[in-house]
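[Automated response] Your request has been received and processed.

Submitted sequence:
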Amino acid sequence: MADTLVFHHVGVITDELDAAVEFYRGLGYAPGPTYADDVQKLTIIFVEKAGSPLIELIRPLGDESPARDWIGRITAGAYHTAYTARDFDAAVGEMKKKRMKKVLGPVPAVAFGGKRVAFFWNTAVGLVELVES
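Generated structure:
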């Protein structure tokens, strides 16, 4: 699996999306379009800066969002690491073999043009997102 996954982004969760965008803008990041993800019940904005990791800013929409509990735990901050997978289905299978608990997906992601994403969790590494390439 090590040669099939490529680091893609870090997800940062916040209830203060506008303030987060302004913070990263002050660090030289440029915000992209805003996405409303009705499946995951999120508002998403990617911010990017040449030579720096891509950052996904995530705001849960309502109490039904799977991400809402994180706001209660950490208020704001790093939420997950994400990797693109050339063979998405095989990568999902490998995550299960590595004792990663699937917590969401696969589901289509509006922020990735409908490509599938899946989220996995374990206590050693936290939340990991797989993104279909």
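Summary generated for your ticket: The CA atoms of residues 52 and 76 lie 20 Å apart. The mean pLDDT is 91.
If you did not submit this request, please reply to this message.
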